[in-house]
What does this fold into?
Amino acid sequence: MDSAALRSNARKYLGPHFTTKNAWWSDDLPVFVRGSGCYLYDSDGNRLLDGLAGLFSVNIGHGRTDIVAAASKQMELLPYATNWGTAHAPAIEAATLLAELTPGELNTTFFVNSGSEAIETAVKFARQYHRSQGQPERYKVISRESAYHGTTFGALSVNGVAKLREPFEPLLQGFRHVQNTLGYTGDCGPAAELDCVRAIEQAILEEGPELVAAVVAEPVQNAGGVLVPPDGYWRELRRICDKYGILLVADEVINGFGRLGRWFGSELVGGEPDMMTVAKGITSSYSPLGGLVVRESLVGELFESPQAGTFTHGATWGGHPVSTATAVANLTALRDEKVVDNAATMGRRLQEGLAQLAQSHRCVLEVRGTGMLYAVELTANSASGRELTADESKRVLQEVLPAAYRRTGVMLRADDRRGTNISISPPLVLDEEALTHLLDGVDGMLADIEAAIPA
It folds into this structure.
């Protein structure tokens, strides 16, 4: 099927995700047919650098035949088995490997199918855990503004991106969103005195500490422009949650498996959580898989409780044999090939390159990030302080950047969930050649923006 036929059938038969009609019906709609390393190849024969690693997820890079072979072998050996009253080898192996990689006492994994499901599972575990401990009144959840935590109904209730929640309101009750860490970086003074920390405790007090089940946050918040927390922030979250008997959940769906130059974001920011949600990089998106990793002691308390005796949750494909076999192959490759170390090293090079571009382009307000996760926040003129108007922002996001992706051969993502940002998150196997291509592409995109938007 040629490109024209593929695009025509996409319009007729394929429902898009988070894509406008104009973009979906465009004759320039990218249709990808192959991937290799850091690169994607479309149906028109173009090669594009995958500067977003799919959706922050193809950590090991595209086209790994060893991972494909592991999935194929498992399909032949045992294509399906359940974790409902039975178990199977690949899920056990994946959970064991995760326990070796995750920090501290985070040793027990409940497998699901996606990041959204992992967040749903965290909320359910928190509520049932408190009920099992004689506190059934604890049901509320605190999360942060602009933070993305998924799209299913429960996850959307945790989600702090207002415009994603509004089309489906009223959502679930008992969810509150508070100030994030925007504007706070590095050493801002004692963390306990920062407004972004006080906002968490104030919300708990206003909601009633005895009613709050969990606090959910990404170690480094992606949505809204990659918000790296100030020093001590997560240790303060840990202290506050301990003070009021609340479970702390780290959403590692994007942060995890090397994205920040460490295996997990929790290791970078400190303050070990009670639960950790994972997905995306667990299989490098070669197969759908998510999970909730929980402190072993909490699982024991839940299972030993007369009120519970089990975690009342499950899914037909949770811990699917093919997906967990894929996870084992992927995680083994990430570990043995020291891909996380490469992410740290090349991430520093990426940060240096983006900082240099910020100095030479008036449209860059700020570059934020760490490891292999960055955002370039855009403005009209950083020197004069003129911001993009709403119309200019829309033009940049919907016209200038999509055309620039094609012209530069670099696929990135425009993010308008707070401000106007370019998201950058390449595969963790990025090498010098791909890094140069990526930075040249960003340079070209910024030049295109400045040509289109007056100072």
About this structure: The CA atoms of residues 301 and 409 lie 53 Å apart. DSSP finds 16 helices and 15 strands in the chain. The chain has a mean pLDDT of 96.
